[in-house]
Design goal:
The complex is a heterodimer. Chain A is α/β, with parallel strands linked by helices. Chain A has twelve helices and 25 strands. The longest helix of chain A is centred in the C-terminal third of the chain and has 23 residues. The N terminus of chain A is likely disordered. By secondary structure, chain B is an all-alpha fold. The longest helix of chain B is centred in the first third of the chain and has 13 residues. Chain B is globular. The two termini of chain B are 36 Å apart. Classes of the chains: A alpha/beta, B mainly alpha. Chains A and B meet through helix 1, helix 3, helix 11, strand 22 and strand 23 of A and helix 1, helix 2, helix 3, helix 5 and helix 9 of B.
Chain lengths: 434, 193
């Protein structure tokens, strides 16, 4: 130990090329005898990954994860629960893996953040102090964005099933109660929304259910606020092949935007028309989880703006926002999609930036990758890959890599990507929660 | 970097934090692979291969072949184009240094015997239990690798519609009987050393 001193430590840490001013360290030094404290709010893919990788990267930090529910239910693959292909239990995981890693998991509701005092207040009355805060609150719905809609209606007649859980099972139950010749309506909110291919995967899974139950006169109607969607060419190819005439997509430009619903009659209204369904799956417009909103971190569209290279909030320092609640990569082409994979990589970038900042070092180069598989029927899948890199200090989407699976591809490609979806799912669950 | 300094830092428990933050760029880069291949490259998803502990040369060869188009992949060929040759070399080195963790995959005796009998043609390169690869640039160890993944890889080698680089693998997998493919995969998957 006698040959080790603070100067060596800094030299090594900063890659020998950079001498960090002592003042930078003094500012962020822990209280005497105290550990550096990071609080993570929200135990989904973003928050769980952040907590785990903080503990891996900085085992001496005091890491607290605040989460409402004792069991996490994954949204990825939940469309397969709606069609009955997967039990919901296969999408669930607890927090024991993170607890075993030495993370304090607190089952409570974070009700307020004070960015000046650097505290998080919990419903139980506890106040947590932090040196760095990670917010990964996911989304909240704006029911008022659709006339006649309400949380009560979503819990009963018009489930969104866009937070996996009881509503996923409710939607499956409603589907299972349909008679042949009925219509299953999916309404899609204006983008950006969680899981860009989600509604179209869902349409495919519902059509698959009809087909294998012999309900060939039944229909899926997608009423969309938007004029295009993720992997559109691949979905439309699959629909033509697997479910000819069964899925109808009405884009926003053709009057697909739903503005009003009636829960009693299960009717969705656009500006020009009304559509009555046997099942009406209304995905309401959504925005960042309310704690982010209440902390003042959101923009006029309801999403948190972040430094694209570090995930630190552009509003309040020492708060990092990851996952669906942030607008990340507000780029001319391909802003970061709201996916589990993206949340996971954003969390890892935030962890690197937090440890660097608390050590008085510059943030490391960030690496963002997204991979997202969609399965339209068992054994038939495809994907989109997004890669981002830093060019001249700015984050850009790599146009020379990534992209969607080729539309013209040998049959084996679809089969492999259907298999990869499940492998991806198991690994990302473990990478975040084990 | 001075070895004593590293040792001192490690002893003081201080190395790991800045390593992830700044000192080791490859660790941060590699973390993006974990999403699909498992933390430290140890996969828990049967269609995805474990990559931690595979030979460095093999990992580099495969990634470079995807990049050039010489080797087909449904997903990786798009992903890998986003990485420079240097990053590929760094990732190969990083994952090669991780321990190989065979995944326990018990299989019933009948399939095990069928797989062993049919795997005769595999042993020249992979060894009796899949743990003795002959050429680290071309051949991975396969003991305890996921059976599902190996079955899918063989499916690729058996399908002439896609480009695969290794003539001997092509020939030998195509000479396998259809009903033996899964059994061979399960035989090697069941081997723990």
């Amino acid at each position: 130990m006698n040959r080790f001193n603070r100067r060596d430590f800094l030299k090594v840490s900063a890659g020998a090329s950079l001498l960090v001013p002592m003042a930078a360290c003094a500012q962020t030094a822990p209280r005497a005898g105290g550990k550096k404290r990071v609080v993570v709010v929200g135990g989904g893919f973003g928050g769980a990954t952040a907590a785990k990788y903080l503990k891996i990267g900085a085992p001496d930090y005091d890491v607290t994860l605040v989460e409402r529910d004792k069991v996490f239910t994954s949204c990825p693959l939940s469309n397969e629960v709606i069609s009955g292909e997967y039990p919901l239990s296969k999408l669930q995981v607890g927090y024991d893996g993170l607890i075993k890693r030495g993370i304090n998991v607190v089952f409570d509701d974070a009700t307020a953040v004070d960015p000046a005092k650097k505290t998080v207040r919990l419903k139980s009355g506890t106040t947590l102090n932090y040196d760095a805060l990670v917010l990964s609150p996911g989304i909240d719905f704006n029911f008022a964005g659709i006339e006649g809609h309400s949380e009560a209606a979503a819990n009963n007649e018009l489930p969104h099933a866009y937070k996996a859980g009881p509503q996923t099972l409710l939607l499956h139950k409603q589907l299972a109660a349909m008679k042949d010749g009925g219509t299953f309506i999916i309404t899609v909110p204006p983008g950006p929304f969680r899981c860009p291919p989600g509604p179209y995967e869902r349409a495919s899974q519902v059509a698959y259910y009809f087909k294998h139950k012999g309900m060939n006169k039944s229909k899926v109607l997608i009423l969309d606020s938007n004029d295009s969607f993720s992997k559109i060419g691949l979905f439309q190819q699959a629909w033509k092949l697997q479910y000819p005439g069964m899925i109808e997509w009405v884009p926003g430009a053709s009057g697909g935007k739903v503005v009003k619903v009636d829960a009693k009659t299960r009717t969705a209204y656009t500006d020009f028309d009304k559509f009555q369904g046997d099942v009406v799956n209304v995905i309401p417009p959504h925005h960042a989880g309310h704690i982010a909103k209440n902390t003042g971190l959101t923009n006029e569209r309801g999403w948190c703006t972040v430094n694209m290279l570090t995930m630190e909030s552009t509003v309040h320092p020492d708060i990092w926002v990851v996952g669906d609640s942030c607008v990340h990569g507000d780029l001319p082409v391909y802003g970061a999609p709201k996916s589990a994979h993206m949340a996971n990589t954003q969390a890892k970038v935030a962890v690197g930036a937090i440890i660097a900042k608390l050590s008085g070092l510059p943030a490391p180069e960030p690496y963002f990758v997204n991979t997202c598989y969609s399965v339209t029927q068992p054994g038939y899948g495809f994907s989109v890959v997004h890669i981002y890199r830093v060019v001249d200090g700015k984050l850009v989407y790599a146009t020379d890599a990534g992209g969607v699976s080729p539309v013209e591809a040998p049959a084996i490609t679809r089969k492999l990507e259907a298999e990869y979806q499940v492998g991806w799912f198991k690994n990302i669950m473990a990478d975040a929660f084990s | 970097m001075n070895k004593r300094v590293i040792l001192a830092l490690a002893t003081a428990g201080l190395l790991s934090a800045p390593a992830f933050a700044s000192g080791d760029k490859t660790a941060a880069l590699a973390a993006t692979c974990n999403n699909c291949h498992g933390t430290n490259g140890v996969s828990v998803g049967p269609s995805m291969p474990s990559i931690g502990g595979l030979p460095e040369a093999y990992l580099r060869t495969v990634m470079m072949q995807w990049k050039s188009g010489e080797r087909y992949s449904a997903t990786m060929s798009r992903l890998i184009k986003g990485y420079s040759d240097q990053q590929i070399a760094d990732l190969a080195k990083y994952f090669a240094a991780k321990p190989w963790v065979p995944q326990p995959q018990p299989v019933d005796a009948k399939i095990l015997a069928q797989g062993k009998a049919a795997s005769e043609r595999c042993t020249t390169c992979h060894g009796d239990t899949g743990s003795q690869p002959d050429d680290p640039a071309e051949t991975p160890q396969i003991h305890g690798q996921w059976a599902k993944y190996m079955e899918l890889e063989m499916m690729k080698y058996r399908d002439n519609a896609v480009a695969m680089p290794h003539r001997r693998m092509r020939g030998n997998t195509q000479r396998l009987k259809e009903e033996d493919v899964a059994a061979v995969a399960q035989y090697y998957a069941a081997q723990q050393k």
